[in-house]
TrEMBL record:
Keywords: Cytoplasm, FAD, Flavoprotein, Oxidoreductase, Peroxisome. It is an enzyme of class 1 (oxidoreductase). Its cofactor is FAD. It comes from the Eukaryota. Residues 24-206 form the FAD dependent oxidoreductase domain. PROSITE patterns: DAO. This is D-aspartate oxidase. The gene is DDO. It is found in: Cytoplasm, Cytosol; Peroxisome matrix. One of its GO terms (molecular function) is FAD binding. One of its GO terms (cellular component) is cytosol. It holds the Pfam family DAO.
Amino acid sequence: MTEDELKKFPQHVFGQAFTTLKCEGPVYLPWLEKRLKGSGGLILTRRIEDLWELHPSFDIVVNCSGLGSRQLAGDPKIFPVRGQVLKVQAPWVKHFIRDGSGLTYIYPGISNVTLGGTRQKGDWNLSPDAEISKGILSRCCALEPSLHGACDIREKVGLRPTRPGVRLEKELLAQGSRRLPVVHHYGHGSGGIAMHWGTALEAARLVSECAQALRTPAPKSKL
């Protein structure tokens, strides 16, 4: 940022300004769902406690259960990173602002402005914390004083499914003579939107490998 641009942020000595893309889940996810259905996909909603419940109805399972993989895949490495944000009406805010640590940010969107945030490792609490909300608003107003005039303030809480690295691999589950090919695809943390298309392409490739293996007859032993 130039010296003139930095005058707006007197508590900072360095900054970067750039244009980027912002993807909004409430709009993007329904578009993906429509795309899936348009390609012949069928969406079923049900609760399962074990991946084997899907056998033999499904030949291959892609496990995208996020934090649910602690139970479904027995993965102790995945944990929540709690995030709390505020959604406010401030239509005059046109540019995003994010401080160096990434814990304080202002992201204008289609219908509201998102103010954040928190990174609370291992915290499963989905209820908003009033003190945290007060701190978020205070920090964001320090970056953008006009937010003192924001209205319709709503609190939102989510859990980021985090692990040391994304789990993207095949696993062949076995129970006696039964086999269930699984492609694990979870643990993106806060980077789901950024990484999802690339990791989904790799997951699809792994599914193709599983399908090919199912189509290939097992070799018969000769005596």
